[in-house]
Amino acid sequence: MKFIDEYRQSDLARTLADKIARLTEHPLKIMEVCGGHTHTIFKYGIEDLLPPNVEMIHGPGCPVCVIPLGRVDDAISIAQTAGVIFTTFGDAMRVPGSQNSLFHAKAAGADVRMVYSPLDALKIAKKNPHHQVVFFALGFETTSPSTAMTVLQAAKDGVENFSIFCNHITIIPALKAMLDSPDLQLDGFVGPGHVSTVIGLRPYEFVPRQYGKPLVVSGFEPLDILQSVYLIIKQIIEGRAEVENQYGRAAMRDGNPKALAAICEVFEPCPFFEWRGLGSIAHSGMKLRSQYAMFDAETKFQIPGLRIADPKACQCGEILKGVKKPWECKVFGTACTPETPIGSCMVSSEGACAAYYNFGRLSKIAERSGLGTKG
Amino acid sequence: MASEFTSSPLFQRVERARRKKARIKDTHITLAHGSGGKAMHELIEGLFLDQLRNPLLEKLEDQAVFEIPPSAQNTARNTAQNSDSSVRLAFTTDSYVVSPIFFPGGDIGRLAVSGTVNDLAMSGARPLYLSAGFIIEEGFPIEDLKRILVSMRATAQEAGVEIVTGDTKVVQRGGADRIFINTSGIGIIGHPVRISAARAQPGDKVILSGSIGDHGTTIMIARGELGLETDLESDAAPLNSLVHEILEETTRFLRPDAIHCLRDPTRGGVATTLNEIALASEVCIQINEEEIPLRDEVKGACELLGLDPLYVANEGKLIAIVDAEIAEPVLARMRSTRYGRDACVIGEVKAEPQGIVVMATTFGGTRIVDMLTGEQLPRIC
Prior knowledge:
Helix content of chain B: 25-40%
Strand order of the largest sheet of chain A: 2-1-7-8-9
Number of domains of chain B: 3
Order of helices and strands of chain B: HHHEHEEEHEHEEEHHEHEHEHEEE
Oligomer: heterodimer
CATH topology of the largest domain in chain A: Rossmann fold
Number of helices of chain B: 11
Largest sheet of chain B: 7 strands, mixed
CATH topology of the largest domain in chain B: Phosphoribosyl-aminoimidazole Synthetase, Chain A, domain 2
Radius of gyration of chain B: 21 Å
Distance between the termini of chain A: 25 Å
CATH superfamily of the largest domain in chain B: PurM-like C-terminal domain
């Protein structure tokens, strides 16, 4: 298929993998920040192609995975309010709160509906004027512009029964918090592609400047990721640390000014936002500005707003920071599986644990069946 | 990293956890229990089978196959006296709740007939008679009902079966969504075949009768929520004539038992069906992504929606796992038919590791293809 198959050619992949292997034998740890990259890495078996000295660390860039338990409970509590139609992206349905998930709340009678876009939620609000329609807004700068546009549209159309439960987060403060973490040892970053189409490349400049680490903004096809890994390692061996753009076909240096303007108009940073596993990170969350407060579900509804500690057995935090591997977690694959996730990393297909569980047991299988890994 | 992974005792841990007896932990039925994936298996094995267990049911095939007990034959008197010519029957049932009820390439009526015909055909049976039960919501247009019945008649004619008994219930508005149809079917197994999901053997070839994901994608698009327009059509079709051709071919080679498994990969898609076979037969199934036929429209829609076509439903495709010796002639025969013209070998059966489906990706890597978990939800970024 045009514009897709070009980025999935196996002969090019092998050539690129050989080039990577020839660059250095020095052990390197490279983090892909974005969950979309994690998914691609597993889906296409990219780790099979990389030389053994290059290790991919799967970062915190899955917005579903970093939602804390308490916020999920709040969402469920809103969904269970009489007269509420609660709308959400599909992935968020299965995220476990402290008791159950939106999926279970729906089965038990709450009106929870899956939508593909916040505009669909607004449509539902217009069709159901006697119901309160709430959209579970979550995600990085990839999804926040569409939420912002929807709020602007709702304001323009005077839709009073629509609100959002805002959990939008921004990647830069999280990246900074991780770089400041003393137990983290990384040599470079594969930068998020979709986020960068919105925010551009400039916000990443502190990574090489202050921390001396290369960052390459990457596309989501398997060849994109391999090429980005190549560019990062090339920077390292040449003693450079820069922000490079591998995803030039979509991400521009200045991002998307229109989308940024919409975000700025509607949202402002909140002083703190709690990330599951990573704790509270300053200025990493977004909330509605006061002039749009009438669209804020948190002012419209009574929510418990409790801070709930992660289950003791769950090691999502260490996994999100790349300190621990998914399989080093005691409950991985036993108590915590994609069907019955305990930790959030097991929920979304972009979560590191789910990716390992679903796609990741290949080395052993290759060994036992003589399938042979490529590269 | 690879070695670290290999040496980890984790694998045994996961394998053990996976092999545990299915138990249903949920307190309510969720949509996942109907998706054809893991939750549905838990429900079936942990509740239905637990309560209703008997030797025929516990095989968990898509149909029950049984011989008419000699005592029953005697009471019937006019059946043949010699008990050597044992008659085997296949019996199955399925309910249809598709929305929308009319979609490109078919409708709920065509689906209801071909689905049950296919479940019978996958045992090697010749489908004979169907029942049809209708649950209709108050206010449903008679015109639509007629359209559905015309389609059922045409599909039954195509399949050479007759709908010989039926039932109608009308429920108050909101008691059902428009119309639900249940069909049961009975068929007779003439060939001395032994087809079962538990019969895949190392060395066997895996044949797929055509492109994947057409039905599921068509339905998603027909719901109109996505604002997409394509020329895609559902593949809903009765496959008994295709199965008949396959069995004729094996009979020609005097190898009627060379067809080991036949399944139609409906809910949960090709991935889930192959997992069921790998588990039941305790074998590994290896497939090549490159060989799997996939229409550009389906590929594109799945890219957009974040779906994996391997998990998307088909309603007019079958997977045949056959002895390697006979794979070529069977494939050629399939390709000469209307519903099998795009058939191809997509992989083969290996001994180890048991219960697992592995795919060589077009990109040159490999990955495990697991059973569907939950609903196949679109990713959000």
